[in-house]
User: Fold this.
Amino acid sequence: MGFVSFSTKKSIYATIVLASFMMTLIVLRHVSEMTQGIPFLNTMSKAETPEGREAKIRTTPDTSYEGDMTWPSLKDTSITVEEIQLKYNRCRTITVQTNPKCAELHDHPDLAWKSTAKSGNSKQEDFQRLTLASVCCVFYYEEIMKPAPQSELFPWEKYYLSTPLLQNISDISQAAQSSISFLSSPGSDNTFTLGSEVRFKVELYNGRKERMTRGGDKVDVWLSSDDVLAAITADVTDNQDGTYTAVTILPWSGTVNVKATIAHHKELLRTVMYLQRVFKSTHWFTGNFISSGAAEATLCSPFTNLPGYTADQVCNLTEINGFPWYCGKPVKAEFLNCSHFTSEAKLFYPSYMPMTEEEESLLTLTERHRPFLIPSNLSINVLADQGPNTTLPLPEQWCHERDLPLTFDDNNSYGFFYHGQWRPMACQLQDVNADSLAKCLQDTTVIFVGDSNSRKQMELLSSMVSCVHKIHRASVIWHAPLRCDNNQTNMSIQYFPHNFPFYGSQKEEVNPEVLYSEARLLDSLPKHGRYVVHLHTFLHLTPFHFSILDHRLRVTREAIQRLLDRNPHVIIVYQSAHSAYDRRPGNYHKLGVFLVELQRSILRGLGDRVMFSFTWPMTVAVANDDEHPPISNQFAKYYLGYICGRLK
Assistant:
């Protein structure tokens, strides 16, 4: 897919702050129109708006830490309470100037997060009020900020959160000023032989054309030949001095172009990790509680800490969900209690969070101008004895003969595209077609558990075989289980959406009865029968602190082990997170590379029936810019090439 070049004009940075502010205006004005009917928000005129008033961080009685001046969430980081307070003051000023309804929520934040109606159906009104509170930045409660999401920092958190706060947007690395060059010595006319290793040096410079002297930026390098639809991703090492070393091999002959991009700036990673560690989430949910006498919507999260709620005012819905899930207790206690929980819905927008002007500008820059392509005129002429348009010989070993634990060790250059088809280096994929799949999947149940990308894999496999859809996708319940069977071959293909947090469509209320815990589903499978279980957990977990995915993966690992112990005819495929140069506001791909490491490290070592389907390098190689990669069919052919012939 093509790149959109990052403009080198000096005016680009001057427009970023304005663009960021204008986006805030648009969202807040839309929310203002949406909340016209909420009674308590219509009592203050614009003239009464206290724009300059300081946003005070609030403390509830049961969340104070006597004698400890350091918040647990800030321990071993460079973040300070003073930094957060300054960001809140800016956040308050901007939101109040834009929407006078924000003023009363800032003055009376207790009105923001709980229903003001004492009876009747206030669900719609509650949802609108919570949406407004979220985009008005009314998050200054110690009960969400002070506790650490987990006691120890992840290694990457410790690295990025120890860096100083961004002071000037010109301090970040700028792709247009940076360079990529050969470290390997090419022959005349930049010639290399087929199969050669090639090495590159990337040097990053900031907006003042000064060489960066510290690492931390995420750099992607890949090689491609558009004429033969070929591409490969390089392995990149951060030298921690502003330079990066990229290494790959040359598996096809012809003219090969070298491309590089700053995938994410270290200052952006610091910003996003700060938001997730302090505020736990960047996009909140509401829970719907309904009885015959009343209805109400409250705030929900996989963390117990909810703004405006003390510990005894929270419903623990973990047993219903199968993984941690908490919602505020309804205030209509006469009519509603925790047992009346019926569904959840995402708020319309990601939250407007406390940030500096520079951090917000960087966030907007990322979401509007990715990818940041580093200028490169490097072109390689790859020579082969067999002539042009040739590749390395196919491996003698078939992929269904390769040990599955080795898939957890594959690096970025473990495979490449040629004529648009993915080819692993270590083994040869068998052809996947309707006939081979009918034989491969006979007497087999294939189960997909995950998000819309998991559903896509289910749909792809269903289209490749002969099966009858027993459960169709319906507009009434858009996110729900699916099933396609072939009674003649005793094959069943099934999809189950994973449990909360699950981001449904706009205005969709997702019922917990149509969502499934990976662990509970794995535990429900019997000790007899052939099963292929495909798991994928990614996009719906990215707005939350890493600890949520970490816990989910560890619980899932234990369930996988139990299933493998009792059923010798099961194969597990775990599809990794993928890369996407997504330019939409609120995109979920900023921390994906760290999620890959969590997935790989936690699920490693489960034995010879668990495969790691490493899709990250595939998506980097094609400069994917979609959260639903168009090359998903290659993901399917890849894992099917490993499991067909292995099932017994």
Summary: Residues 11-34 form the longest helix (24 residues). The longest strand covers residues 254-264. Confidence is low (pLDDT under 50) at residues 1-29, 37-52, 60-68.
